[in-house]
């Protein structure tokens, strides 16, 4: 339940007050990345 709230209900400042699920479904939305190295990581499929 906490993960659902975090990804679908809670807005995030680094995503310009969007929800992670919303940004994940729309790849054209730009967001801030705090990652220092630009390593391509494979997507996690559950």
Automatic annotation (TrEMBL):
What protein name does the entry list? Answer: Transposase
Native source organism of the sequence:
Lutibacter oricola
